[in-house]
Amino acid sequence: MSRCRNLIFILGDQLSLEISSLEGADPANDVVLMCEVAEETTYVRHHRKKIILILSAMRHFAEELSAKGFEVRYIRLDDDENTGSFTGELKRAVGSLNPEHIVVTEPGEWRVLHAMQNWEEQMGRSVDIRTDRRFIASHEDFRQWAEGRKQMTMEFFYREMRRKTGLLMEGDQPVSGRWNYDSENRAPAKTDLFRPRHPTFAPDETTRSVMELVDARFPDHMGKAKGFSFAVTRKDAEKAADAFIVEFLPRFGETQDAMVRDDPNLNHSLISFYINIGFLDPLAVCQAAERAYLQGDAPINAVEGFIRQIIGWREYIRGVYWMFMPDYARKNFLDASRPLPDFYWSGKTDMACMATVIRETIDNAYAHHIQRLMITGNFALLAGLDPHAVHEWYLEVYADAYEWVELPNVIGMSQFADGGLLGSKPYAASGAYISRMSDYCENCRYDVHRKTGEGACPFNALYWDFLDRNAEKLSGNRRLAQPYATWRRMSDTKREDYRQSARLFLQKLDKGEPV
Length: 515
Ligand code: FAD
Ligand code: DLZ
Ligand code: SF4
Fold this sequence. Notes:
single chain; Serine Threonine Protein Phosphatase 5, Tetratricopeptide repeat; binds flavin-adenine dinucleotide; 49% helix; binds iron/sulfur cluster
């Protein structure tokens, strides 16, 4: 049997020609393995548009590698011999190609890394698990930064990343004298008929055949193939990023925290799918944003805000994931245990904010940050939903969701299930916040101004009940001193009204009655 030198295994979220597993690769002697496997498509029931994005992007990337002269062993989901798992497919490839070595870039999930660490023994040859160099901070960089700190404040990590990349820096200081413009990015927004539309990409033949496959094979997964319009090639993803920089970045800051009915995208970039899958280099995107600022095409609050999300939050979240897994996934500081209500899958609820965000999620496999954090996440937190179930929901429904980025955002930032390791206080808010930052309440059966009783916005009573229920664990938090002081100043009758309203609502929820 002829023998290949290296078998290079590329996973579905490693679709970059610069991926470390391809460094030094030789098309004449090495073979690339890519496989669509049942285990990855079903370990949670991913949204159909997410599966289509990944499989179609994988098929297009395999073509790009073939055009570069690589032999690609590409296994399709419906191939007869498909064993359904990464390990099974690697074993089969090793059996037929008899490589000297196996080369792979470290995965984005602890679960997969754990499997990989057994491959050397299982495959009977060396397995070179290489560092994923698509990030600015290595695991070691993050650990060094985090160790010995009382509080792992993102802002200080972010400043290190600014210094390391030189983005928006003048020597050792931030351009224009300030590190952070968050306070200027908190305005509400209105429907803007003149807002440009985000680019969409018509499915080609490859994508259409994946759409058929996915609709037929995953009927019980969220969403539909119809309407799929993500970029599935690097070139198209770059077009999406370019369009963002020109059309949307200048107003990114001013609408960053806003939510508007019938405008699910506002001025967000819609590029997380492409960065996470490997089509876009995060640093290059930030450099393009910085150029827009330096050329006077976008204001500092927008550009700084955008760059912070990527070199700050995104890198920080990844650091937290790898530092605290596998225990992090089971954190439940507030002992929350309520199952997810059915409307998280159907969008059928009278709460207009929840219905809007969930329906948009079902249609698009996308919701922007504030929708994820302050609507679906906030409700889950206030209602005491089981954080692990909440985590699985987010991992299923968003096209950009991979555990390394989704889990800390859910367990830490959104559900405070890590007890404040990632954020200094829970992102809990009553209806007043939602009413201020969105136009959802105008269209709701509930009255956001009513605090308790029939027809009152459920977020109002749930908010106070959340603080009351968790007082033992949260009342000592300095950042919650003000709401707890307000709670204590209320009359006994008022407090009991809130408790009673929340109790009635949660009872309905538990019985599966419409809310
Ligand atoms: P923009 O608003 O345009 O932001 C620009 C980029 O910044 C994003 O593309 C993304 O790469 C990065 N970014 C912004 N915020 C974060 C953050 N908190 N963590 C990591 N990167 C960030 N992001 C994911 O990529 N995958 C997830 O599974 C995911 N799950 C989330 C779950 C919850 C509960 C919350 C609150 C946030 C989650 N995020 C996740 C972060 C953020 O909501 C998305 O990155 C963002 O909405 C993607 O849309 P966009 O590209 O239009 O982002
Ligand atoms: C998410 C996903 C899905 C749905 N399907 C595949 C697949 O068939 N083949 C593949 O290589 N990768 C897939 N992925 C992405 C993997 O789950 C991801 O690479 C690991 O979870 C590590 O982040
Ligand atoms: Fe949501 Fe309450 Fe506003 Fe209705 S009134 S949209 S439930 S915040």
